[in-house]
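Record type: monomer structure entry
Structure origin: computed from sequence
Chain ID: A
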Amino acid sequence: VADQDQNPYRSQDASVAADVLIAMHAPQVTNRLNTFFKNLGSSNDPNDNRWRAIMPEYSQASQSIMRLVDAYHPSEAAPFLMKMLDLVSANGSGVTINGKKLWLSPQIGVAAMLLHVTGQSPADYGITKAQNYGNQWVVLGDQAEAQAAIKKLHTWWDVHGKAFEATQAASESSPKPPTPSVNHNPPSATSQQ
């Protein structure tokens, strides 16, 4: 879905790939998502191109990843997104659409993903999608409201984040399921006689 080498010509396949993976209900997908988020979390550079794969405004691949996260609940997602929340830029821009002031920034997009992953409503933080502005996540208001939403999310994480970190630690210490062996050389009809 997103582990493709940032090839923009393949992102149209992301939603189809997500449909197939969601229908599979395979534990290997959870393992792969955990590896994906763990690899992303190994970098502290917000300009790391790998992070763009999950930024909501960049591609259909990011939307497909969030669908997979919603279906499989990988334990690495919430701690990674919380880390990312502090590393991506809070700089953004204000726009007025239909008489409403809106503020958008990369940090607001990450906040919306984190809220989704933790089962919270972005609306409780004043975050919504701007339908007439590329369907991007925005804060209703200006930069002050954006900062208040991020502060509120940090306060929530201080109280509830340990549960997500404990889930992450438990998944790291649990035994991995065995990988099924595949016999590429099945016995021939003559060898069974």
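Annotation 1: Confidence is low (pLDDT under 50) at residues 175-193.
Annotation 2: The longest helix spans residues 143-173.
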